[in-house]
Amino acid sequence: MSHLPILPVLIPLLTAGLLLVMHGMGTTSKRAVSSASVVSLVVISILLLSEASEGLIQAYRLGNWPAPFGIVLVVDRLAALMVILTAILAAVVLLSALSGTDTQGRHFHVFFQLQIAGLNGAFLTGDLFNLFVFFEILLLASYALLVHGGGLPRTRAGLAYVVVNLAGSALFLIALGLTYGTLGTLNMADLALVLPRIASDDQAFVRTTLALLNAVFVLKAALLPLGFWLPHVYTAATLPVAVLFVIMTKVGIYALLRVSTIGFVMAPFTADLLHPWLAWLAIGTIALGSLGALAATRLSIVVANIVMISSGTLLFGIAAGSITAHAALLYYLVNTTVVAAGLFLLTDLVSRHRGEVADVFAKGPRLTAILTTGGAYLILALAASGAPPSSGFLAKIMVMQSLQNTNTAIGAWAALLLSGFVVALVLARAASMFLWEPGRADKYPSHPGQVGQMPSNTRNSEIALLGMIACTLVITLGAAPISAYTRATAEQIAMPASYVESVLGDASAIKRERRL
Amino acid sequence: MELLVSAAIGILTASGLYLILRPTTFSVVLGLTLLSYAVNALIFFGGRLGAFAPPLILPGTSGHADPLPQALVLTAIVIGFGMTAYLVALALKAKGESGSDHVDAGEE
Questions:
Q1: Per-domain residue ranges for chain A?
Q2: CA-CA 20 to 30 A from B108: which of A187, A399, A416, B84?
Q3: Dist CA A382 CA A390 (whole Å)
Q4: Residues of A with CB under 8 A from a CB of B
């Protein structure tokens, strides 16, 4: 058995411990350790991806305890894709944080590594309770990262965020307790086996339980009735942290996708659990995100609302549930993560250039590097609004095509097109403010970038931004191989039987005591 | 017995929810604590109520107590405790910075 699948969790976890021990040592050595961990994660996730792309599902049993009794990690195409996305994002976040954000508060690198451990664990685990544990690890790290840098607005946003997520965790535990109480298992593969055998008396109860579970994922993905926390939190965070948070909503989407494809489809009474109302939630989320973007007074609020719109768009793929929809969803997910991360990095650069005015839509010092910053802005804005020839255009076309034959196709198309229009409008308005409406120079005497605690060295952030733009180019030019991979992923998760078999082996050999 | 236990969990949850919806962080912390009590009890009783189920596998015993909810509830207690501690620290920080326990304190 190869030990590769555990490494994406183990390396950042051990690094976090090491960094805690190294507390008294200099910044340089801490940065070196943190960077070494991220670089090795990138390498490992590439190896995992190349293994997963052969189509085999790898189950890693900790301590060799047989599933469903032991802890199991599962690497399939979907998990490998999410892990590599996390690794790329982590590299970008670290690069931009190294320009000085990491020294604005204590233990930045510790929490950063813990958050990556939690993210990778959530993507790799094959067990609902461990999903909860990894959620908590990534949340606890995110609580600390959110207030990194200090200040009352961050504390206030942090307080609201922690309370919302603690309530969400309580809901998660209620769902898990009820699931275990009725089904007698929390292993996802085992769940798929047990669900079809539920007596008809218990079916309504099981449906309720699983609906509660979905409500938790809806909260994490910031979808409509439970998504109001997102713009508040993302705009309060230090910008490199906000870049890392972009993948957190994707964890909710991932969990919805995983649970709905592995668990629910196996039994007729849960197969339709998500479908009647998910598409409407998606439309609502997109509408809310668009209104939020229109009402925004700062660029970072616009980007946070773009994250929300993309969550809604991703939900369409889950609601439709077909192989093409899932394939389109995954392609869109890769693209939107990269684009939103790039936009947050750009916001960081813009607010550093503009000093005190930061990213507020108000007259301020004119941006100096118009050609480079403006060029980056143009590319990312095109991708965010889904205009050709960007990667966002391809992704949106795929999503729209895959929704063609669903009941809510008209609503979905209208929501997608209108939200793209709104995003284009808002970003264009912001650009004209930043690039062409400079305030009087004598009103802003301070050197741009030197104000307050803002670190002045922007070179790292520029490299990180360049990396993200290169990624959008790769997604555009490499659309054929990437969409082939997402297509294969969608086909793989559409056959839960092979997942169950590789996790549980010979399922009939599992001895169970009959539950009362 | 089942009725008593489920009523207790229900009342704990309801009181917890009521307190979470209050506008001061102190009551919110208390509410979340009550909620986590309710949740822990729920997980624990997911292993079924029973007074005489043997906890260990010994020769001649059958109908053992389910060990998994016990393990799950331990994990849940530890995590809940850690999170509550962090929340209390954050609430104190917020009170120190804004001078009030109210959620809207310091809002202009």
A1: 4-504
A2: B84
A3: 6
A4: 129, 133, 136, 140, 143-144, 147, 152, 155-156, 158-160, 162-163, 166-167, 169-170, 173-174, 176-178, 180-181, 513, 515-516
